[in-house]
Amino acid sequence: MRQPHLDDYSRDERSDVTPITDKRLIYAYYKRKLPESPNKRDTVTLRHPEFPSQVKTERKMYRFETFDELWAGFKKDHPATYDQYKNKSKPLLAPRVFRDNAPFQVKKAHDTGCCCIKCEGMNELRRGCNGAAAKLVDVISRLHNSSINLRAITSQLEAMNAILCMPSKYDSIVACLAPCLGRADKLEGANFECINGNECSKCGFRQLWSGGVRNALLKQNEEFRANTILAGPEWKESKIHWRHYTQQVSGAISQGDDDSDEYSPSDGNNARNLVLETASGNLVQFLDKYEEMTEKHAYHRHLVSTERTASMAYDQNVRPFMISRNQDFAENGSIKNKRQVQSQYWMTISYTLFISCVTWVQTSEWNKVTGKLEVGDEVTAYGEKAGEPINMNSYWGTVTGILSLVGEEYEVTDKNGTKHYPNRSDLRHRKNHNIVYGHVSDDKVHDSYAMQHFTTNELCDLESYMVQKFPEDLPSGKIECLHTKSDNAASHFKSRKSMNYFSRLSNDRGGSSKRALVYSFSAPNHGKGKCDGSGGCMKHKVEHTLHQL
């Protein structure tokens, strides 16, 4: 019997009246927005349920956002289709037709977002947002049906409900600060008093809750007011559940019998463990916790967003001969033999791993005035040649269309979304060359001296490598401009010893008049970067090699 093609298979289910054009539109949106795995072996296989020999294999596409966040982006790109399928009572909730028509190779990325306790704690708190929003809707409906005019309180409740229903943490913080942000809707433009606790008297979730609804609902002794239509059973039901991180102190166990040689206490110190607890409460308790967390999270999100914006601006404007370098200590790796004797289980052989990610713009590609460009290539329009004074009228953009291959005519879209049509001779191709250095040592001390030793060896090897492989990127044989970035850990980076070392690096290469060394510090404990990912890959390679011995 001739087996049908896998694309022709359709499971018997309820009648689907969704037009094929809308399905293709949703499918194309996912393909455009979600990134594919860079690993060719990272694939997903779809098998025909009735004819197992019919299979389809595609490279994985990772979903770093929730379906609700993708649905919010779909609203901006395709407003007409969005209005057709949105849930009128919950417009921010992604409908089933949007989720079901995603490509089968879409997988949820488990390393999403910032891995710090502030972001993850906010994620755990948002578990209770749906329950709280449902109760606020009930309160708003009761006020609308009442003959008493509470228009101000109702508008505050509707604003609180809109904040709780936001698809992402970033959007919820932007909505809290909206009265002061204006039309920009960018957290990077917020004033310091707006993100620093409760200094601002115009914006913030506290203006709606503590400064508005809560005063109208509760007395000073935390009792509900009996003479207001606002009070109701929705505020007292303890059916809202959320999670939060807390520190638990576990006391050290005291030494037992003196004759016992099997147990040795940990120096009598109390250990502090980070624990994820589940909390339950009523609507008032949840809103109190939400207000407290949003005030702390606003400062953190502003910091992360500002750093990310600055990093993107640097990457878009960096020129040839400028070497960028990200450095950090990875978590110590461990060496475990495949077959271990019993006494080896309690012995850990670890090593220090220092990661440095180096990148620069290739001069040979930058100076080209002819040659084919692909869609998606980054360019600098009207940029100067390498070594010439920077043209201040140049701008960064990406190639979004090829108008003519013969005439080399391209469509370039800048960072603001404006389309331009410059000549190929006016486009500087931004092609980066990347190198990752992994420094290994059996000395487990992470201090400034270890960083200096690794950096000295790395720069010598880097200059030798560039002279052999990329001489046009290092015309003088020495690095002319080095931009080093790291967090501000005082033990090995942000210290007088480290700054003195980098000052001497400039002197060893001709002095500050001929060489420029820049050091940028970022905030620590706010997520994972390229150094962490590279370190994880190296440690995984070591473990994989040991298991094959």
Q: Report low-confidence residues grouped into runs of 5 or more.
A: 258-268
Strand residue content: 15-25%
Query: Over all CA atoms, what is the radius of gyration?
Result: 29 Å
Total tally of structural domains: 4
Q: How much helical structure, as a percent, in the residues? A: 25-40%
Number of strands: 17
| Biggest sheet features | 6 strands, mixed
Global mean pLDDT: 85
Structural class: alpha+beta
Would you mind describing this structure in some detail?
This protein has about 550 residues and is α+β, with helices and mostly antiparallel strands. The protein has 4 domains: about 90 residues, no CATH class; about 170 residues, no CATH class; about 130 residues, no CATH class; about 70 residues, SH3 type barrels, CATH 2.30.30.140. About 35% of the residues lie in helices and about 20% in strands. It contains 16 helices and 17 strands. The strands form 5 sheets. Strands 7, 8, 9, 15, 16 and 17 form a 6-stranded mixed β-sheet that branches. The chain has a 5-stranded antiparallel β-sheet with strand order 13-12-11-10-14, with no helix packed on it. The longest helix has about 35 residues. It is globular.
Summary tags:
alpha+beta; about 550 residues; 6-stranded mixed sheet; 5-stranded antiparallel sheet; 17 strands; 16 helices
In short:
The chain is α+β, with helices and mostly antiparallel strands and 549 residues long. The protein has helices at residues 20-33, 67-77, 79-85, 96-100, 117-125, 129-144, 151-164, 169-176, 178-181, 192-195, 205-217, 283-317, 363-366, 448-469, 496-508, 530-548, and strands spanning 43-47, 55-59, 61-63, 106-108, 240-250, 271-281, 322-329, 333-335, 349-361, 378-381, 395-404, 409-414, 419-420, 427-429, 432-441, 481-487, 516-522.
